[in-house]
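User: Before I run my own analysis I want an independent prediction to cross-check against. Here's the chain; please return only the structure tokens and, at the end, one sentence I can use as a sanity check.
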Amino acid sequence: MAANPQYKSFQRESDDSDTSATSDTPLNAEEEYDYYEILNVSRDASEEEIKKAHRRMALRYHPDKPTGDADKFRQIQHAYEVLMNPTRRKLYDQYGEAGLKMYDGYGNHPLGNLAAENLSLWVCLLLLPVLLLLLFFILVVVNVDYAKGWSWPAIWTPLWVINFIVVLLSLSVTVLAFSAASEDSAEISKPSVVSFFFSVILTLIWQILLSIKLNGHSMAWGYVWLPMFLVSLLSFCRHFFNVRSLDFPMRSKIPVFLFKIRWTVMRLLTMIFIVLKSDGVSSMSWRAVFSPVFAFYGFFVLLSLLLSCCIPKLFGSLGETILTDVLPSIFIVTFIALLSVALDGIRGYSLGVIFVPVFIVMGLVILVLCIFACLLKCMMDSEMPEPVSKRNSQKTPLVDISRRLTYNTEPSSNKD
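Assistant: Structure tokens:
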């Protein structure tokens, strides 16, 4: 069988007008621009090269120039904005315009700026404090139950790392609140930020004193707990100024203030009892020392359940109250009860048994974070467009775009 004489050969032709039209205007609405071709730079061009190319192209195609082109100028401006933004450029290089559209679509979402490729980093940052805290509790249990004799400041090493991160974050928030150039500074309560920062510093000082005291120092327990008393005082002041700024009548501000300081009062009473018991001033049992914890948690958990049943629109549904108030309270009260019983010598519980509720809670937190991260990554991966390199590798052109199919009018000399 002879070849079809009408399509005997392909001839290479160049049509400058066709190629220029293709580079300037997409053939259809779904065709994407190549931002690098628009600016006439290579894909590995530096920021300085992109700036020079943008300046040259913008001057050439500015609408006020004789050679100006408004549509081309808009393309140049958009390409420059994308390529000069490191995050958007990286997304464009990997996923094209579809990746930019997905990124912009998540812009108003709390997790909008988290690309799927960076999700693992954020999960590690969330898990790091939890894992360090878990390591600290394990070291405490091993040191006490197995009489290792380790130095308590050394055991505190995981907490020193957490404290360092918290101090840096609180310092950053404080600087942001007092920065005159910050647009959000007006929305941040400066007294609350200052109170939080000093509370973090005082808590760090308390941990330092506690680790030194546990290591055998002879200082009184009152000095050890003094920073935490100051933290409670700051909490009272913060709630007082916040309630005073409310646009409520005075008779309504008093119950609001009392409700807000309820947990501060509980902590203050418990710390006073701990100091009196530890320094030998009082002979009360440890169960009596922790009685404010049992009383406050029991009362406010029952109150939360009652309010959720009576006014669910204002205080949340019963299921939400059980999840956010009842279950955490059960774990906290169980841990405190086991600790007080062991300190009173009623039961010979080891510290490992006492910390079982803590390990359960932290295990659940780690599990929830891992499940959440996996679900979020799967969701973002399903919505993330196919990488540009993979799409391009699947597009095998049947013919070179610079070749044109021509009709051959010469008669065929081939015969069957």
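Sanity check: The radius of gyration is 34 Å.
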